[in-house]
Amino acid sequence: MKNKEVAEVLRHIAALLEIKGDNPFRVRAYQRAAQNIEALTVDVEELARAGKLERIPGIGKDLAQKIKEIISTGTCQKYEDLKREVPPELINLLSIPGVGPKTAKLLYEKLGIKSIEELERACLEHRVSRLPGIRSKTEENILRGIQLLKQHVGRRPLGEILPLAEALVEMLRRQAPVDRIDVAGSIRRRRETVKDIDILVTSRNPARIMEVFVSLPLVGEIIARGETKTSVRLKEGIQVDLRAVDPACYGAALAYFTGSKAHNIRIRELGVQRGLKINEYGIFRGDERVGGREEEEVFAAVDLPWIPPELREDRGEIEAAQAGQLPRLVNYDEIKGDFHVHSLFSDGTASVEEIGAKARQLGLKWVGICDHSQGLRVAGGLTPKDIAAKKAAIQAFNRHSKDVKLLFGTEVDILSDGRLDYPDDLLREFELVIASIHSGFRQDEATLTGRILAAIENPLVHIVGHPTGRLIGERDPYPLDLKTIFSAAQKAGVALEINAYYKRLDLNDVNTRAAKEAGVLLAIGTDAHSLEQMNFLSLGVAVARRGWCEPQNILNTFSYRQLKEWLKKKVS
Ligand code: DGT
Ligand code: CA
Ligand code: ZN
User: Fold this and answer.
1) TM segments (predicted)?
2) Which CATH architecture has domain 3-151?
């Protein structure tokens, strides 16, 4: 696929333009083109050959020309020119949370800093805070950002890796004599980031499995090859450990390699108290194996019901299981809709009709089309005039669609003083109002908390979007008094979002659980900007499950009728 490579060049152009201080709309145009090309389900090369590049939203004559150039030469004149003006290494600096294009430029011009290492040293030596226009707080923020980046080195977002893991399992199933097979480890627990892919398999012919495995086209390099365990690195960069185990201890191995380590240790201790040894080879009394074929046997051996993998973090699940008080977790197939999808009306890549069709394909009953409000000009925020056109498009879809209904919604910006970006009279027009913060992340905790509280107290707001603003590995959550927010949301009957976009997952698992315990309703939204990103819904469900949520805690389990009622009751 050339799509990724083309998108990357366009993204680099956007970053260099940004560092240069170019027009933000031009920057945004390149970013949007990159995003749209990545979202294509066809090869960009084919489109170019057929002369159809300009059918991609956001791509006009000029960009189409550049894309053709990139396809045939791997680069384009514009990119090469920019690289002569701005050192391309500076793009790396932008990956540090807290370093924007202006700062990157200043750091380079005044201190000659080009790499993250150089920047870290300069901060530690307080050379950065001595620059004009830089506060000592900024220096601290940059150091914190570098630390955040480092923490994530070697860990990848679940949303990037889960599809790969599932593809591997599918390929092995199809091409090798697989009997049982499961992805284990942090992926099975649906942790938000993962270090590697752990797969377990049983087979009559394990040697053949290993042979097929190492020759899969996804595999880049073989790290270690044995009869029962093989490790490879995928071309994507992540390590995969494949273990073939004896069917008689498959359940014990699955429990062991699912973890977490902390959870395993607790289970092993409970075993010891009962005179049992529990490990990846089975359940043993003395030297005799007394069980381990099924995972349930491991839990039963220590007098526990089977515990869902998403709960296995030693965060109270063992005590809850002992007390017969495990939550009845919300299931993936109980989800009836998605609250948060962007359409072509703002910065999304799909039309209202396409979103409806995709929802049908996913088995959903309803989708909230929530585009940005006018204040977010660079994200194509809607003016009152656009809103009427959008409403008409949604009504037209709903008139003909019996099974899938679209909700006429908005993601209204919470401005830096806590006001909303649309007046109440306009907000009242929408069936669904999500209010989110997109600016002013550097304000203090009291101010940021106040902004969210103000949104919660507006009776026209249904949901607060991506409440903490974090981006996994890129941006810390901004400081908030979540306890106060949860209690206000509960009182006002405002739901908090579990944003399911793979880099957000916001609220995260721990905060979701705290919200649920405070009696707050949760609303899962993919924040999809393309049809493909609507698939991330299951990541939001994973967060809900890791947050101990039951169906009644999650608004997405509502039927269209129930939801309409809830949305109305809220306002009147
Ligand atoms: P990751 O890979 O960092 O995303 O997280 P995990 O949980 O997949 O960790 P990994 O791949 O190192 O090991 C897989 C599972 O194997 C882990 O969840 C629990 C089990 N395990 C690994 N090391 C130990 C250990 O020293 N003691 C016990 N009891 N279990 C372990
Ligand atoms: Ca792992
Ligand atoms: Zn947003």
Assistant:
1) none
2) Orthogonal Bundle (1.10)
The span from the CA of 162 to the CA of 149, in Å, is: 21
Q: How far apart (Å, rounded) are the C-alpha atoms in residues 312 and 267?
A: 10
Neighbours of 118 (CB within 10 A): 16
CA distance 252 to 233: 26
Report the C-alpha dihedral over residues 411, 431, 400, 356, rounded to 10 degrees. Answer: 30
Kindly state if the Cβ of 262 falls inside 6 Å of ligand 1: no
Residue 188 CB less than 6 A away from ligand 1: no
Read off the pLDDT of each residue in 35-46 and give the average, rounded to a whole number. Answer: 87
- Cis preceding linkage at 260, omega within 30: yes
Between the CA of 222 and the centroid of ligand 1 the distance, in Å, is 21
Residue 1 has pLDDT above 60, yes or no: no
Given a cut of 70, whether residue 152 has pLDDT beyond it is no
Does the structure show a pLDDT above 90 at 298?
Answer: yes
pLDDT of residue 383: 83
- Note the pLDDT of residue 140: 87
Judged by its nearest atom, the ligand closest to the C-alpha of residue 504 is 3
| Smallest-distance ligand from the CA of 258 | 1
Distance 546 CA to ligand 2 centre (A): 17
Atom of ligand 1 nearest to the CA of 187: 8
Ligand 1: atom nearest CA of 259 is 18
Superfamily of domain 156-244: Beta Polymerase, domain 2 (3.30.460.10)
Fold of 249-322: Beta Polymerase; domain 3 (3.30.210)
Query: What percent of the chain lies above the pLDDT cut of 90?
Result: 80
State which of 153, 261, 281 you would mutate to test the pocket of ligand 1, scoring each by most atoms of that ligand within 8 A of its C-beta. Answer: 261
- CATH code for the part of the protein at 332-571: 3.20.20.140
Average pLDDT, the chain: 93
Q: Tell me what the mean pLDDT of segment 523-539 comes to.
A: 97
Kindly report the protein residue whose alpha carbon is nearest to atom 25 of ligand 1: 261
Instruction: Please state, in angstroms and rounded to a whole number, the distance separating the CA atoms of residues 164 and 149.
Output: 23
Give, using CA atoms, the residue closest to atom 9 of ligand 1: 185
Q: Provide the pLDDT for residue 532.
A: 94
Pocket probe for ligand 1: among 161, 162, 198, 278, the residue whose CB has the most ligand atoms within 8 Å is 198
* Segments making up each domain of the chain, as ranges: 3-151, 156-244, 249-322, 332-571
Name the more confident of 400 and 145: 400
Q: Is 160's pLDDT higher than 80?
A: yes
